[in-house]
Structure formats: C-alpha cells, structure tokens
Amino acid sequence: MSYILNTQQADQVLGALAQTYGVYAPKRFANQGRYSATDCIRYDKVTRASEIVWQVKSDYPAKEVINPIQQAIFYFTEDEYRASKCKEQPILIFARPCDINAQKIQAKIYAGNGGFTDMYYERMRERVKFILMDCNGGDDTCFCVSMGSNAVEESDYAAVKFSENGMEVKVVDPELEPYFAGCPESDFAPAFVTENELKVTIPDLDDKEVRLALKKHPMWQEYNARCVSCGACTVACSTCTCFTTRDVIYGDNPEVGERRRVTASCQVAGFDQMAGQREFRATAGDRMRYKVLHKFHDYKARFGDRHMCVGCGRCTHRCPELISISATINKVNAAVEEIKASMGKA
C-alpha cells in the first residue's frame, strides 16, 4: 500500500516510529564540515521528517550505524572478561540503493568470511531494516549504474520519496501499516536511476599475467606524489571494513578496562607493518594499488558475485588531494588495454 503525507503528517509518523525504533537518516550538522563554516551530513537518529537531508548525498555512509567508528567489544578485569551488550531496540535506516547494496557486500565480509561470522556485526545487522530513499540521480561523483548498484529488490519495510511538501511512501511490511492509518493513499512506486552523468569502464583483470604486469605499471607512481595517506577515502567508503583494536584502561589499574574496535585504513602508512618494522606496501602508490585492485578484482574473485565498489563517489568527495576513484579506474582500464596489446592479447 502506498501513501502520500504532507509535512505535518510525515513528522507525526516519524515521531511515532521513533517510539519503537531507532530511526537513522542523513542529518545536517552545522559548522562541523571539513572546512570553516561548512556543514557535515552524516547518519544520526531523527524523530522528525524535516531533519532528514534528502536533497544531497551524505558525506559519510549508512554503515556507521551498524559499524561505528569506535565500539566496545568486551570489558575486562584481572580475573574475567565479558562481551559488550548490543542495543535491543530495532533500527530503521533511511538509505539510498548504493548504501543498501553496500551492506550486502559488508555482510559477505563480516558474516561469511571463510566460514567465520563476526558476532558484533551480525547482532547489529539482524536488528536493522532499511527504508529505501528515492535517489535524485546523485552528483558528479556517482557512478552507481556502472557498478550495478543503482537498484535493489523491494525494501523490507518501505520505500520513500521526499519533497518540499512531505513524502510519498510505499509500505511493504504489514508491521508498518498501522503507522500510516488514516493517511491518503497514492500510487507511488520507487524508481531507480538508470544513467549517471559519470561513467566508468571496469577493467578486465581475469588474466593473471595481465594482473601481474599491472601491479608493476608506472601509473601507480603518480600517487606517490599525490596521495597523502590520510585514509579519508576508506573512512567515507560504503564498503570498507578494516579495523584495529585498542585497549582503554580505567584509572591506574592496567588490568581493568575495555577493548575497542576502531576503524582503520589500508591507505595509512604502517597499516601492514610487521615485526621488524617491515611493510609490504611502503609507498602511497603501493597502497593505492592494493585498494583499487581489492575493490575491482580481489573481492569479486573471492565471493563471486560483484565488485566491492558501489559507485557512491564519497571517497572522491572526501579526498583532500582531489583524487578521483572513477578517473583512477579509467586509468587502470587504459593500462590494462596497453598491457594486453603489448602481450598480443588485445
């Protein structure tokens, strides 16, 4: 069943939902942006539809609701430890198709990686339902159509299209129907973006000989001068899952405290440092190569369904050196074609 709500009705419905669910959506935080007097749009709890930023893409992805940048995983004393508790309240997340598809990728990594299930991810993910936000086409960094992440199957709970006058909703789950009792019905059905302004050509990396040659291609050296290894791209990425752990000691007793899982980045120097201070990827170019080939070959080779990038373009937005992931992929594709031609495989 579909409904059309004015701004007052939309606020009432969101307020009612917030009594039962933790409702998360893109929200504007004034003067908390990267530059002076700029805003930041990230996911946070909302209780009114008017708080939801639907006109533009959020600076950070929906994954932060399920995988916070920092989270306690267990507490310890001298004699014992116990796992941290998970919030019991169910969660609704307003998200665009790219973010919903990104969670399918994260589920493969966290819940199906070599037969090991990450309990901290799973216990949160099983409480989450997504509300599909109608996408207005994105911006000049989006290439979701090229990545096949522009559409999703019917949402678990609802699909929503916002406007200045309110919102239209298609309710899928009967559990949500009572919240819209008395609202005018409509014929709304979600629509998906079919073309982006930006397009990328995904390189063919099935040939092992070509991949080995690509790893030595001089194109990666460009990033030694450009990339500052800050890790901003991976923090803003919808699908990156790397983390480290950190112990926080309570007071003066080193035997009492908590262990936290903290977001980490393969793009930061020292991420892969081993005993003896050895690093496998000691330069920015090496780290960039690792990230790009993981997103556009390794993940799909392991899990077999799709590439790890969903084309949201957030990494391009957040890069202080204006490194574009789409431009990088097109450079990789050109390098692959060059290598194939030199090997007589074109």
Could you explain the architecture of this structure?
This protein is α+β, with helices and mostly antiparallel strands and about 350 residues long. The protein has 2 domains: about 1-65 and about 85-185, no CATH class; about 210-240 and about 265-340, no CATH class. The chain is built from 11 helices and 12 strands. The strands form 2 sheets. Strands 3-2-6-7-8-9-1-10 form an 8-stranded mixed sheet. A hairpin with a 2-residue loop joins strand 8 and strand 9 (about 165-170).
Topology:
Blueprint: E1 2-6, H1 7-20, E2 22-29, E3 40-45, H2 63-66, E4 70-76, E5 81-83, E6 91-95, H3 97-111, H4 119-125, E7 128-133, H5 144-147, E8 158-163, E9 166-171, E10 185-186, H6 208-215, H7 222-226, H8 232-235, E11 243-249, E12 257-263, H9 284-303, H10 314-318, H11 325-342
Parallel strand pairs: 2-6, 6-7, 7-8
Antiparallel strand pairs: 1-9, 1-10, 2-3, 4-5, 4-12, 8-9, 11-12
Helix pairs in contact: 6-11
